[in-house]
Amino acid sequence: STRSSKRVRQTVCKTAMDDRWCRSACFILVLVFNIFVRSASCHAFEYTGLEATVSLNAYPGTDYTSSGTLTLRENVLNGTYGLHMYGSFSVEGESGIGEVHIHVGSDASNASSIGGHYWEPTTGIDPWIYKIEILDGTAIVDLNTTDLSPIYNFSFQRSLPVEGRTVVAHTADGSRAAAGAIVLTTLPEPMYTGLEATVELGAYPGSSFVASGLLVLREYTVRGIYGLHMKGSYSIEGENGMGGIHIHVGTNATDAATIGGHYWEPTTHPDPWEYNVKIEAGNATVDVLTTDLSPIYNFSFHGLLPVAGRTVVAHTSTGSRAAAGSIVMKTGSSSPMPTTEPANFSTQVIPLLAIFAVQISIVASLQCV
After folding, report:
1. Neighbours of 209 (CB within 10 A)
2. Which of 108, 194, 199, 285 could pair with 181 in a Cys bridge, judged by C-beta atoms 3.0 to 4.6 Å apart?
3. What's the whole-number average pLDDT of the chain?
4. How wide is the angle at C-alpha 170 spanned by C-alphas 164 and 176, nearest 5°?
């Protein structure tokens, strides 16, 4: 590492070692080089923003005195979904090596339906061998499911979904002493990015429906998840009942042959587009956040799961495609870039880059602890 840093310094500064710009550039290059060397040997979780809580109480039908609260955070590590479970619980009068697992059942108050450990496929090996110390009735939990063996893609609503399932705490002799349901916490208010698009709905190509409408889509983030707020209204002459409105794959709203099906990725995961609106006397109102769909996907205009240019389709109560329109970005919908005089690179930009590089170094060091 030291020799590599020296070669970098000699290459960049061999013709102007006294120049302040060069010295600053050398400092940054060496620092960044060391960051990459250090980062190459560590991995950091990327949290999806989804969280859940578990309120543990005495296992149903037992006389244990148990309580506790656990938090679960969904994360991704090297493409594998996982859950970080942490918190504490107590089982009065117990000590020894206990266990905590996620079980199949979705009713933590019914012992007959809690069932055994949850993993899929059940032809595989049971990963739930996580053990903790119960000391004077109290236990601390801190587990990443990606540390279990074998590793499974546990998530809240995607692969191996655990939302609503039951967490069970066992005593040292294996008895079930506490149980609680995994409940997703309410997402905070969205933060809008400033990007907007409109959808002008007309009759679905090739159909005889009389349809029109206008929708506005606004991009936002919430707990690091991108989403779209779709709002507006449309009409389908003579229709009543509950009809779906979804984003479809195609990018030509006038060509029925290419509009395709619902858009989400990867398609090996569940389809989130079950959103329906009430059509009354031909009129419908739309107001939906894509993070309220299940499962939650990172829909955005141009980034993750990009929808700009794709087609919104409105369905009748029978599922027929009655209206369609393209998602068209609004001109100047994002915040304008500030217009300022160009910065002096050596006296203004380089110091800022140096500070930024130091901050990256600190973050990288913390992630490797």
Report:
1. 19
2. 108
3. 84
4. 75
pLDDT tens by residue, 215-264: 999 999 987 889 999 999 999 999 999 999 999 999 999 999 999 999 99
Nearest of 106, 75, 116 to residue 180 by alpha carbon:
106
First to last CA, the chain: 20
Question: Taking 80 as the threshold, does the pLDDT of residue 186 lie above it?
Answer: no
220 to 74, 173, 284, 291, 299: CA distances (angstroms): 20, 49, 24, 10, 9
Give the span between the Cα atoms of 310 and 307, in whole angstroms: 5
CA distances in angstroms from 249 to 218, 256, 300, listed in the order given:
19, 11, 14
Query: Shortest CA distance to 181 belongs to which of 284, 69, 273?
Result: 69
CA 13, 18, 20, 23 torsion: positive or negative? positive
Per the CB < 8 A criterion, the answer to whether 136 and 80 are in contact is no
d(CA 301, CA 328): 10
Residue 202 neighbours by CB distance under 10 Å: 16
Q: What are the tokens at 189?
A: 């208010």
- C-alpha distances (whole Å) from 175 to each of 43, 53, 149 are 36, 23, 23
- Name residue 367's amino acid: Q
CB distance 289 to 186 below 8 Å: no
Spatial separation of the C-alpha atoms in residues 358 and 114, rounded to whole Å: 50
Residues paired with residue 213 on neighbouring β-strands, in sequence order: 201, 234
The predicted model scores a pTM of 0.58
Cα(208)–Cα(97) distance, rounded to whole angstroms? 69
- Written as six digits, the tokens of 149 are 């063996």
Instruction: Say what the pLDDT of residue 145 is.
Output: 94
Q: Convert the pLDDT of each residue in 11-38 to its tens digit.
A: 544 444 455 555 555 555 545 544 444 4
Q: SS3 of 351, please?
A: helix
- Using an 8 Å Cβ cutoff, are 325 and 319 in contact? no
User: For residues 88 and 141, what is the distance between their CA atoms, to the nearest angstrom?
Assistant: 6
Q: Which of 8-17, 92-101, 139-148 has the lowest mean pLDDT?
A: 8-17
